[in-house]
Amino acid sequence: MSEKPAEQRSETVLDELAAVIADRQEELPEDSYTASLFTHEKGENAVLEKIGEESTEVVLAAKDDDDALVAESADLVYHLLVLLAMKDISLDELRAELRERR
Ligand SMILES: N=c1c2ncn([C@@H]3O[C@H](COP(=O)(O)OP(=O)(O)OP(=O)(O)O)[C@@H](O)[C@H]3O)c2ncn1[C@@H]1O[C@H](COP(=O)(O)O)[C@@H](O)[C@H]1O
Questions:
Q1: pTM score, two decimals?
Q2: What confidence tens digit (pLDDT) does each residue in 10-33 have?
Q3: Closest C-alpha to ligand 1, atom 44
Q4: How large is the ipTM?
Q5: How far is CA 96 from the centre of its chain?
Q6: 34 C-alpha to center of ligand 1: Å?
Q7: Domains of the chain
């Protein structure tokens, strides 16, 4: 059985996204939405509020729109990765937690 190409493996895209988020956190480019979350006047509450909003959007989409559910889930995962970066928690720590539950 052949392995999926790298760009189709979910762990790879999550690692790549986490790496981009880490770059934005370090470099804080002015035109970056991600950077704006790290520098927001509300502090971490900005991303916490987004996680609350995106969670609600996931729940609503789950009721009747699978395409929207995928899109809203991606928004939620992205904002969760930003929060983990803010807290200096790596994707490996999340993976370890999930593995422990198997
Ligand atoms: N995955 C994402 C991603 N998902 C969602 N979002 C942003 O999250 C926001 C979601 O907010 P909403 O759904 O409420 O939509 P909105 O009304 O436009 O947002 P607000 O005005 O309420 O902030 C939008 O601005 C989206 O653009 C993301 N922004 C960035 N990324 C990734 O981060 C990388 C770096 O992006 P920049 O930081 O913009 O360079 C990108 O290449 C992407 O891979």
A1: 0.90
A2: 668 999 999 999 999 999 999 999
A3: 17
A4: 0.90
A5: 17
A6: 7
A7: 9-92 (1.10.287.1080)
